[in-house]
Design brief:
The protein is α+β, with helices and mostly antiparallel strands. It contains 2 helices and 5 strands; from the N terminus they run ββαβββα. It has one domain (3-109). Helices cover 45% and strands 27% of the residues. The protein has a 5-stranded antiparallel beta sheet. A hairpin with a 5-residue loop joins strand 3 (41-45) and strand 4. The termini are far apart.
């Protein structure tokens, strides 16, 4: 994947088939991805805080006012951080349950 730093703000103008991931008229952060762009897609950070490919025609690029740019970027970073922590804590919980299950099985077998 040829992904670089932030690309810019885009507004969602269509979400058919992606209703759970995209809200109409919401502003999203698009990331540079030349490979995706060459295929007609845009890499966008969605509601989950993760970046996914969506059809380019679902979005229109916009220029945020200077006063809004930093708070917008901060909010996206926090959303991604939160999503990352959630995924990490879910993984830790699964590992913990697996260890507990192995211990119980070992105790029953002993």
């Amino acid at each position: 994947m040829n992904t670089e730093h932030d690309f810019g703000a885009v507004v969602c103008v269509a979400n058919e088939g992606n209703e759970a991931s995209l809200q109409l008229w919401k502003i999203y952060l698009a990331l540079r991805d030349a490979d995706a762009k060459s295929e007609g897609f845009l890499r966008v950070i969605d509601e989950s805080g993760e970046d996914y490919l969506f059809p380019e025609e679902n979005f229109v690029p916009i220029t945020l006012p200077t006063e809004a740019r930093k708070p917008f970027e901060r909010a996206v970073r926090e959303q991604r951080r939160s999503a990352s922590k959630s995924a990490t804590s879910s993984s830790i919980a699964r590992l913990s349950r697996a260890k507990t299950t192995r211990k119980r099985r070992a105790m029953r077998g002993a």
